[in-house]
Amino acid sequence: MSNWIKNEDNISNVVISSRIRLARNLIDYPFPNKLKKEEAEEIMKKIKETIINGNTVLKDEFKFYKMDELDEIERKIMVENHLISMDLANNKNAGVLIKNDETVSIMINEEDHLRIQTLFSGFKLDEAWDIADKIDDILEENLNYTFDEKLGYLTSCPTNVGTGLRASIMIHLPALVELGYINGVLNAVNQIGLAVRGIYGEGSGYFGNIYQISNQLTLGRDEKEIIGNIIGISKQIIEKELSSREILKNRLGPKLEDRFFRSLGILKNARLIDSKEAMNLLSNIKLGIEMGYIEGFTTRDIDSLMIQIQPAYQFRLYNSTNSVQRDMNRAKFIREKLSI
């Protein structure tokens, strides 16, 4: 189980996780897409020494990983656990500092020299921001950021100029999808300047009825305004999802309960299953738990399982050589997890 998932949230199980990301760059260096290898190494060394070798409260809490010292599966597992981006995983001149409890990762030489990410289970954007802000302050005391008095923090992508802040939630919306309301909700979100992405960010699919919602622009707005906006919109979406669940319950009656337990029965007995089908069935089980139909599992158990069934994690466990063997091993893994 990813450590960040273990943190329980009693406000709403609709929100799987909350994430804050701060983009920063160092003066005297070009942006990462123009960095020479030796410059990339210098930046990694500076940031690593600030955290691990510096005289800060953080020095014993982080471990450093260089992308070119990890194999492809190790890098992909970090992506599946939402600890790094795919762009970082594919950059051999990059590295990451990961906090022992995996709630913080500091990506080095991704799209920007420095990306501070805090990741918390549940609806905890304020808490995630508080930690990210404190780490940013510690780093800024020891590093020279590129900053313009009028524009704010300068970043590789113009949409991040300003605060450099991206606040996002990962949210489970099966009832809105089932009732056909999801497109209207997502269109409304886009119209007010927010972005909607799949489970692994930009370019990824909407598997398991899971969506990521975040701000698109940071210029001209302060951090509290950005976070407050995301929180306010999220609460409206949560309310719409919860009311849609009641509509489903009243409309489908015992058919809804049957769907939940059929999904559980399939996963407890399947001998072959791909990750997409498994995600959709786990989404049904997660909803059944949250609506009080299914007992014996927590919603965080299912959140963790959704990560553990992904391709890289499964390859590390079983070293499957073809798709049939991989799907057989995934089915076996799920059966074992759901039989506990």
What do you see in this structure?
This protein is α+β, with helices and mostly antiparallel strands and 340 residues long. It has two domains: 240 residues, Glutamine synthetase/guanido kinase, catalytic domain (Creatine Kinase, Chain A, domain 2, 2-Layer Sandwich), CATH 3.30.590.10; 86 residues, no CATH class. Helix content is 47%, strand content 16%. The chain contains twelve helices and ten strands. Strands 2-3-4-5-1-8-10-9 form an eight-stranded antiparallel sheet, with helices on one face. It has a two-stranded antiparallel sheet with strand order 6-7. Helix 2 crosses helix 11, helix 8 crosses helix 12 and helix 9 packs antiparallel against helix 10. The protein is globular. The two termini are 15 Å apart. The model has no long low-confidence stretch (mean pLDDT 91). One of its GO terms (biological process) is phosphocreatine biosynthetic process. Its EC number is 2.7.14.1. Pfam families: ATP-gua_Ptrans (PF00217).
Keywords summarizing the entry:
340 residues, alpha+beta, Creatine Kinase, Chain A, domain 2, 2 domains, eight-stranded antiparallel beta sheet, two-stranded antiparallel sheet, 12 helices, 10 strands, globular, ATP-guanido_PTrfase_cat, transferase, kinase, creatine kinase activity
